């Protein structure tokens, strides 16, 4: 009896997935496939590949236990074509279904391909909305309608009201304000105990995947072992519960803090589970609200956490689907330099960067402030071409899929969208990193110095960034104060920052790179030149 072929992708591991609705166990087949193209279109961290393959295999096993027929294609299976399209065509040959059902994918690249699947297999392909998010794309479109710039805060308030989260009985924000971020910027006191890490020992299925990934992807950046990720919904749930019990109460206070040797601090480390479907964002938000209402978690922690899941996560997804594919092509600041090797080697005398890249290599994880204010800030200050920074983030983090990675890096980190997503670039000097971490105390550069060979490079690069991008940034109302400071600066001091930066860039890239033209920048010829272009 011909039935429906239901193709479940690697980041769609949710029992309530829209493409599984109405599944007929007698007639339908679920297709899942490990494919070379997905594992290599960027060179994903081996931990990320192993996590996803093992989670996929466990998900398939779960379906089988429930009596569902699953056709699971392993990476090394003879005949594996290496692509979604190829595996769909082979499965259509095997099962002769009368239609195909899929859930809307998480990346534009896959969406473009998916739109052609019906034609190539000669069957109706039904693409169902991904209902695992709070905000459907058309709801976001309505929010964005008529606005030249978007702000997460206003979107977030709409989501809180619409979904009834953290509201008082009058429908107003719990605690009288929407956002408690001002309370969430503490550095970690010396001696502050941090929660134990949650890890899961690999079972036999994961061990088999680790062996495969070691053989096939051992040359990708990153350590495969020790491997401690959860790979089932039950273990992901346990990881989240561990966070709720041990870390959530202080999550708010220390969410921006960084500390040597402390990879996770009070963070939940559940992004990889949420983004592949092992955890449900609605359940996560409800659970955090319950802890607050039970008096076990302060409001600054509960609100700060919920804002990440209900606010930021949904906001960046909304922007991605609203603005792609053009969004990825903008380069507002005309940034053109290559990504320095240190992002892959971790070899740098800047202790903050060495620490975060080293942790990323070990864990396929760094927390938000490490990503934004250390590796991100440095790439922004250097003027690295956005696409190269984006590829790095997409490859190295276990939670990274383009819908979430691209707006975060392109818009928030690199300001490449000219301020559509966020109001100003998150550029910072070494002072910020020093305030929020203990990295600078162990660095061979001196964070208290702003110029000269011993000075923290983030300090003079910060001023250099403002000077280079003056034409684009001076008019930004949120940058007014800093440009006033720059205006008051003695010309010799300004020149010193320029000279220190030029020396640093030449050391980093070699002679000649400092004035390399931004050939790949579509914005280069747009109205308004940057100081950098004038200088070049
Ligand atoms: C990230 C990833 C990797 C590494 N491998 C696979 C795979 O072999 N099979 C699969 O179905 N999905 C994989 N994924 C996740 C996909 O890249 C993801 O589903 C698409 O990018 C759409 O979001």
List keywords for this structure.
mainly alpha, Rossmann fold, Serine Threonine Protein Phosphatase 5, Tetratricopeptide repeat, DNA Cyclobutane Dipyrimidine Photolyase, subunit A, domain 3, five-stranded parallel beta sheet, disordered C terminus
Structure commentary:
It is a single chain. Helix 16 crosses helix 20 (457-468). The chain has helices spanning 36-40, 46-65, 84-95, 108-114, 117-121, 137-144, 152-163, 204-217, 233-246, 248-251, 271-276, 281-293, 299-323, 342-345, 351-363, 368-382, 386-396, 402-413, 430-436, 457-468, 470-473, 480-488, 491-509, 531-535; strands at residues 4-7, 29-33, 70-73, 99-103, 125-128. It has three domains: 4-128, Rossmann fold, CATH 3.40.50; 137-195 and 247-320, Serine Threonine Protein Phosphatase 5, Tetratricopeptide repeat; 342-509, DNA Cyclobutane Dipyrimidine Photolyase, subunit A, domain 3, CATH 1.10.579.10. The chain is mainly alpha-helical. The protein has a five-stranded parallel beta sheet with strand order 3-2-1-4-5, sandwiched between helices. The termini are far apart. The protein is globular, with a radius of gyration of 24 Å. The chain has 24 helices and five strands. The model is unreliable at 513-536 (pLDDT under 50). Helices cover 48% and strands 4% of the residues. The structure holds ligand DLZ. Residues 9-11, 33-35, 38-39, 44, 49, 52, 105-107, 110, 401 line the site of ligand DLZ.
């Amino acid at each position: 009896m011909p039935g429906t072929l239901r193709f479940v992708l690697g980041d769609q591991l949710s029992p309530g997935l829209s493409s599984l609705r109405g599944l007929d166990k007698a007639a339908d087949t679920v297709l899942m496939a490990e494919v070379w193209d997905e594992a290599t279109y960027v060179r994903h961290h081996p931990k990320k590949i192993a996590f996803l393959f093992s989670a996929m295999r466990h998900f398939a096993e779960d379906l089988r236990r429930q009596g569902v027929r699953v056709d699971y294609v392993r990476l090394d299976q003879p005949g594996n074509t290496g692509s979604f399209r190829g595996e769909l065509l082979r499965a259509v040959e095997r099962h002769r279904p009368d239609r195909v059902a899929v859930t809307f994918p998480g990346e534009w690249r896959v969406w473009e391909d998916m739109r052609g699947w019906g034609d190539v297999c000669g069957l109706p392909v039904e693409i169902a909305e991904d209902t695992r998010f709070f905000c459907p794309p058309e709801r976001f479109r309505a929010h964005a309608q008529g606005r030249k710039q978007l702000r997460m805060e206003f979107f977030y308030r709409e989501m809180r009201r619409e979904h009834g989260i953290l509201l008082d009985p009058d429908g107003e924000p719990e605690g009288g304000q929407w956002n408690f971020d001002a309370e969430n910027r503490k550095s970690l006191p010396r001696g502050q105990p941090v929660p134990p890490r949650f890890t899961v020992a690999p079972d036999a299925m994961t061990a088999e995947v680790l062996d495969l990934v070691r053989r096939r992807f051992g040359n990708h950046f990153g350590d495969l072992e020790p491997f401690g990720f959860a790979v089932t919904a039950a273990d992901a749930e346990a990881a989240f519960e561990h966070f709720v019990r041990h870390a959530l109460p202080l999550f708010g206070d220390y969410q921006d803090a960084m500390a040597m040797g402390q990879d996770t601090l009070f963070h939940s480390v559940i992004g990889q589970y949420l983004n592949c479907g092992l955890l449900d964002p609605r359940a996560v938000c409800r659970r955090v609200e319950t802890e607050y209402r039970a008096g076990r978690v302060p409001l600054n922690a509960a609100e700060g956490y919920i804002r990440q899941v209900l606010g930021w996560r949904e906001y960046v997804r909304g922007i991605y689907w609203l603005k792609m594919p053009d969004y990825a092509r903008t380069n507002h600041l005309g940034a053109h330099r290559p990504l320095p090797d240190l992002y892959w080697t971790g070899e740098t005398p800047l202790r903050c960067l060495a620490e975060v890249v080293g942790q990323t290599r070990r864990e396929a994880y760094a927390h938000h402030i490490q990503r934004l204010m250390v590796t991100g800030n440095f790439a922004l200050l250097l003027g690295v071409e956005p696409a190269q920074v984006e590829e790095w983030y997409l490859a190295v983090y276990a939670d990274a899929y383009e819908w979430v990675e691209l707006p975060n890096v392109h818009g928030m980190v690199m300001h490449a969208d000219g301020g559509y997503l966020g109001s100003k670039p998150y550029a910072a000097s070494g002072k910020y990193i020093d305030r929020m971490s203990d990295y600078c105390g162990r660095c061979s550069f001196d964070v208290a110095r702003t110029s000269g060979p011993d000075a923290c490079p983030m300090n003079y690069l910060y001023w250099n960034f403002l000077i280079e991008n003056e034409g684009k940034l001076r008019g930004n109302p949120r940058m007014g104060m800093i440009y006033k400071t720059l205006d008051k600066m003695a010309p010799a001091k300004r020149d010193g920052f320029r000279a220190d930066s030029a020396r640093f860039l030449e050391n980093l890239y070699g002679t000649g790179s400092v004035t390399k033209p931004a050939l790949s920048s579509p914005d280069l010829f747009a109205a308004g030149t940057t100081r950098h272009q004038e200088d070049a």
